Amino acid sequence: MSKQEIATTAAQLVVDEGLEYGPAKRRAVRQLKLPERTPLPDNDELEEAVREYLDLFCSGTQPAELLALRRLALTWMERLVDFRPHLSGAVWHGTATRFSDIYIQLFCDDQKSLEIKLIDQGIRYRPRTASGLHGEPVDVLGIHAMCQPLGIFVGLHLMVNDWDDVRGALRRDTKNRSPRGDLASVRQLLSNFDDK
């Protein structure tokens, strides 16, 4: 069994169930009844398989779903402009579907100021910890945000980074793409779509 077959199976799980790349690869190995230590495709290979799967099976629905998620992300980024928001993940990279969550990286000196802002706005959130930009643990505030065009609640994850971490946050990835985008970049993505 090749890495390509694992990537193809994992891509279906990413698109149809909204799994993140790591869990999708591990579940694909189990579904294909492969040994646990089977070499896995890297994230670039999986992203390519996701794009192929979207082109084959979701070309009629995915663009509108992506647009709705990007607009919702922009709304939240505008609400949280004081925290230098940057969109990341599938919504930024263009592979999101209605099953995808939205990930927004925030940069602030004091996480409590973000929590106070959410409380003042009557927004309920659930705190947790996740791996940050440099592998260190960061606080994440999870919100269920209503996406009106899709008629569903979407997971919105606010990743709270130190103020100074924004400098390293924009290093290009292996495909020379920016791994996340600020407000101006997200607005540009949406204006490009509106121009079509």
Spell out the key features of this protein.
Beta Polymerase, domain 2; alpha+beta; globular; 6-stranded mixed sheet; about 200 residues
Description:
With 196 residues, this protein is of the alpha+beta class. The chain folds into 2 domains: 3-57, no CATH class; 62-194, Beta Polymerase, domain 2. The chain has 7 helices and 6 strands; from the N terminus they run ααααβαβαββββα. It has a 6-stranded mixed beta sheet. β4 (137-147) and β5 form a beta hairpin. The longest helix has 18 residues, at 62-79. The model has no long low-confidence stretch (mean pLDDT 91).
In short:
With 196 residues, this protein is α+β, with helices and mostly antiparallel strands.
Which sheet architecture does the biggest sheet show?
6 strands, mixed
Helix/strand/pairing class, anyone?
A: alpha+beta
Quaternary form? single chain
Question: Average pLDDT across residues?
Answer: 91
Integer tally of domains: 2
The low-confidence runs, each spanning 5 or more residues with pLDDT under 50, are none
Write down how many β-strands occur, each being a DSSP E stretch of 2 or more residues. 6
State the helical fraction.
40-55%
Helix segment tally: 7
The radius of gyration is 17 Å
| Sequence of secondary-structure elements | HHHHEHEHEEEEH
Estimate what percentage of residues fall within beta strands: 15-25%
Return the CATH class of the largest domain: Alpha Beta
Question: Which architecture of the largest domain per CATH?
Answer: 2-Layer Sandwich
Overall 3D form = globular
Strand order of the largest sheet: 3-4-5-2-1-6
- The name of the CATH topology of the largest domain is Beta Polymerase, domain 2
- Ends apart, CA distance between termini: 41 Å
